[in-house]
Backbone:
């Protein structure tokens, strides 16, 4: 039991450490930005002129100490939300964000109910 | 309970149908129209041929400024150039040309052949400045007022209709 508690605590702490890690991953940002002049490519995948310029600007913004979210906000401000693959939470896409959780809770409840009903019958 | 499950399944299908209906009916072609009305916080341009600079305060002095991104290698820039030449005679409009990722000598030849309509000619050698204006291809022109608000964006070469639109703002 003690070993289990140790492992769970270890995993939680290591996750927390990762979350607290402030290093901005340039490649991750490139992957999450859409190349607006390409067909279904991210900035990371593309060698277009536009992608090259965006990469330079991302590098500059990181050097200025901007966080990943601040960089996405900057790009969204200049090119609209479309440039970011992972949409930011706002009133327009709220349902998109909460729907999976609602489905999970409702689905979980339904499964729980059906299993309990079946068990009672047996 | 069975009724509830049926209701939930029906609700899910209804939700999916609504989502598909709304999404498929939406125009997905990208444009930067949503930038109209937004303010550009910081502007800084370096001159094309000397050490002069153009900053936010300089733009605040002009009622209207048309910032035109162009290059000598860009065919459509050649097409829109006569419109820019006509606009250069407008006193209430300042024209700022931004030479985008270009060869300096070829840019000079371009302006030598077709004329220089710009009140200030800036350079954007690596394209970084263009990102500040939401540019994703050239030619693009942005009409801003003295509060640095984007009034209109012209994506692609300026045409006669655009010329009339700009004049309507100027006069």
Residues:
């Amino acid at each position: 039991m003690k070993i289990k508690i140790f492992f769970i605590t270890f995993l939680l702490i290591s996750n927390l450490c990762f979350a607290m890690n402030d290093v901005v991953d340039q490649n991750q940002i490139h992957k999450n930005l859409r190349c607006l002049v390409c067909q279904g490519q991210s900035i990371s995948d593309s060698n277009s002129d536009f992608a090259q310029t965006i990469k330079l600007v991302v590098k500059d913004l990181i050097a200025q100490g901007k966080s990943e979210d601040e960089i996405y906000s900057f790009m969204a401000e200049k090119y609209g939300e479309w440039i970011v693959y992972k949409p930011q939470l706002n009133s327009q896409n709220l349902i998109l964000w909460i729907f999976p959780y609602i489905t999970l809770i409702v689905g979980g409840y339904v499964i729980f109910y059906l299993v309990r009903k079946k068990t009672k019958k047996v | 309970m069975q009724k509830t499950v049926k209701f939930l399944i029906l609700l899910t299908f209804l939700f999916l149908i609504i989502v598909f209906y709304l999404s498929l009916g939406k125009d997905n072609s990208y444009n930067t129209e949503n930038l109209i009305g937004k303010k550009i916080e910081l502007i800084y341009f370096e001159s094309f041929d000397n050490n002069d600079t153009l900053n936010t305060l300089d733009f605040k002095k002009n009622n209207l400024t048309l910032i035109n991104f162009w290059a000598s290698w860009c065919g459509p820039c050649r097409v829109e150039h006569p419109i820019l030449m006509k606009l250069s005679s407008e006193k209430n409009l300042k024209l700022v040309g931004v030479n985008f990722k270009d060869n300096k000598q070829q840019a000079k030849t371009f302006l030598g052949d077709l004329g220089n309509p710009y009140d200030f000619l800036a350079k954007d050698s690596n394209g970084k400045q263009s990102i500040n204006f939401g540019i994703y291809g050239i030619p693009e022109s942005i009409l801003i007022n003295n509060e640095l608000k984007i009034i209109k964006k012209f994506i692609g070469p300026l045409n006669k209709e655009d010329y009339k639109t700009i004049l309507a703002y100027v006069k």
Observations:
- Chain A has two domains: 24-88, 91-122.
